[in-house]
């Protein structure tokens, strides 16, 4: 049971778990549709313009059934996309309420219903994340007022309830915020480019545990994949060179 050697960093994108979030219609689903052998677990309409493998998910039981079939491995999919994880969480809440025959999660007493929902939600996401496939969770974004010791400021975050959002952001390897970057053109007029932001900021949630990505990258999957793979290849070459170089021994200092 206990390991005999250290695990190596995951080299491929379809070994990782990512949260992709941003405003509606910015291109999140389109970006995810280019992931390798992607299967969409579609919890809401919105894929009509895309040619993708889609499993409609209308309730939590549907999601559990899809997860069971994915875990069996009798398919060619390499990336699982939950679009959106926000709706999946609401389905989980409905499932728990129905199971305990209550109208609302607060009916089970202080905090108990919410804890049951979050536990079930985390259980299923963890199971998916441990499977040998990439996992991408899509969410929308909204602005929240954040209280700090220095005052109040606005921060853009995924549209999940606080505890569910913390579960998701703690689980994933990548938090990718889809946004519009504004520059001024030669004529003085603003030019907008759709981008992904990958590094933490006081103004939005983002993060990259791999350390491979630039702070901002165009919202274009081939460009993203090229940057991700180039950095991985460069790290591998650097490690190989370091391993092959002979160790140097410092000469002992002599006293004058």
From TrEMBL:
**Region (Disordered), start-end ranges:** 235-256
Which Pfam families does the entry link to? AAA_24
List compositional bias (Polar residues) regions by residue number. 245-256
Q: Which domain of life is it from?
A: Bacteria
Protein name, UniProt field = ATP-binding protein
Which species expresses this protein natively? Oleidesulfovibrio alaskensis (strain ATCC BAA-1058 / DSM 17464 / G20)
């Amino acid at each position: 049971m206990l390991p005999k050697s250290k695990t190596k960093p995951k080299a491929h994108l379809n070994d990782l778990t990512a949260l992709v979030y941003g405003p509606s219609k910015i291109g999140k689903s389109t970006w995810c549709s280019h992931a390798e052998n992607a299967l969409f677990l579609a919890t809401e309409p919105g894929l009509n313009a895309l040619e993708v493998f889609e499993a409609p998910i209308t309730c939590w039981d549907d999601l559990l059934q899809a997860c069971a079939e994915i875990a069996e491995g009798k398919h060619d999919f390499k990336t699982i996309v939950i679009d959106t994880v926000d709706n999946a969480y609401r389905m989980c809440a409905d499932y728990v309420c129905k199971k305990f025959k209550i109208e609302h999660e607060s009916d089970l007493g202080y905090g108990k219903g919410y804890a049951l929902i979050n536990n079930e939600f985390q259980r299923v996401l963890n199971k998916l994340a441990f499977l040998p496939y990439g996992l991408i969770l899509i969410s929308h974004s909204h602005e929240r007022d954040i209280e700090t010791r220095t005052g109040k400021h606005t921060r853009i975050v995924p549209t999940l309830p606080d505890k569910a959002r913390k579960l998701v952001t703690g689980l994933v390897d990548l938090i990718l915020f889809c946004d519009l970057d504004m520059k001024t053109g030669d004529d003085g007029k603003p030019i907008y480019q759709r981008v992904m932001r990958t590094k933490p900021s006081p103004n939005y949630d983002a993060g990259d545990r791999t350390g491979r990505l630039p702070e901002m990258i165009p919202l274009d999957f081939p460009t993203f994949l090229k940057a991700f793979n180039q950095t991985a290849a460069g790290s591998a070459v650097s490690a190989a060179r370091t391993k092959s170089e002979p160790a140097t021994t410092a000469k002992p200092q002599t006293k004058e």
